[in-house]
Amino acid sequence: MKGIKIIKKQANDVRVILLSNKQLCTKYKVRNDKDYVYLPLITDYDEGLIEKIRKEYPIEVNDYDYKQAQYRPTNFMDYLTDKIDEEKIEDIRKSFDIIGDIVILEIPDELEEYKKVIGQAALKFTKRRSVYRKKSKVQGVMRTRELEYLAGIDDLETIHKEYSLRFKLNPSTVYYSPRLATERSRIVKQVHDNEVIIDFFAGIGSFTVSIAHVKNVTAYNIDINPEAIRYAQENIKLNKLVGKVIPILGDVRDVADTLEDADRIIMNLPGTSKDFLPLAVSKLKSGGILNYYEFASCEDVVIKHVKEANENYDVEIMDIRKVKSQSPGVWHYGVDAKIIK
To answer: What phi and psi, each to the nearest 5 degrees, are found at residue 242?
Structure first.
């Protein structure tokens, strides 16, 4: 097949030009000997481009023998080539969650008949233990999601590593989002030693354990889901903590009044957090920080809700940010607000 012969010293420059113009045939291995490198060209290579290269570099174009390169898929979609029609492959959601050794996919209903093939592709590509498909959104006060087994070992309990922490969980019985790892890290950096923290919707301890891992705090980990509290208790044991995390099972509306006032309250229940703002304000010390989250189309709506709940107090909006996209036109916002009573 046709290829370019070029001295070794200038081979990489020519290789970059060919790659950037999609003229290098990557199905075959680049050859070399003591003095030269031999770059394989695609069948219908651009002769005009080759002539431009020839004016700058001492190349020879001729027939050379090449060995076929070993094919290595670069993403799990590559594993589906020749198994699913190309136009249907484009319909598959290319982003998916990995929690511990479990892969969780989103597969459109129109690709129902291909779900097992897609599951096997994800299993091979990620080299994880199990693959599941989302069958529902996160729903109900327990914040659970229905998952359908697709490939690997059918076992939903796993341990997820986040920075230097380990979180044990079952993603079908408790809420946990690996996509919030950066947000959790951001909050950890805000916290000072000796803070009293109340996490209103704490789940398995992802915020409270992350904070107490490096800060000497007292953090109340409240959740209405018994499974979430059970895993929170296990995660406290799994991780070496500097501070103290106190898991509490119950509705925060019934529990909050039994606790001391807080220097910081975390409210990551973005669908309904605004309904709990008056309670949070009542439990926050003067000068305390509200780490508040809400789904909204714009930041003005979120700020309005925080200020309306604190109409008798001074509110300093320290930061507001888009944490992640929730749906077209709707964002998961995070707000850090200081409340002066």
So the answer is: -85, -40
Q: Range of 310's domain?
A: 175-340
For residue 307 the two structure tokens come to 């200020």
Taking the CA of residue 45 as centre, how many other CA atoms within 13 Å lie in the half-sphere pointing to its CB? 23
**286 and 181, same structural domain?**
yes
Contact 204, 167 (CB under 8 A): yes
What single-letter DSSP state applies at residue 10? Answer: H
Is residue 168 domain-resident? Answer: no
Q: Indicate the DSSP class of residue 221.
A: E
**Residue 238, in any domain of the structure:** yes
Digit-coded pLDDT (tens) for 11-50: 999 999 999 899 999 889 999 999 999 999 999 999 999 9
Predicted TM-score (pTM) of this structure: 0.78
Least confidently predicted of 106-115, 268-277, 292-301: 106-115
CATH code for the domain in which residue 6 is found: 3.30.70.2580
What is the sign, positive or negative, of the torsion defined by CA atoms of 290, 293, 294, 300? positive
In a domain, 37, yes or no: yes
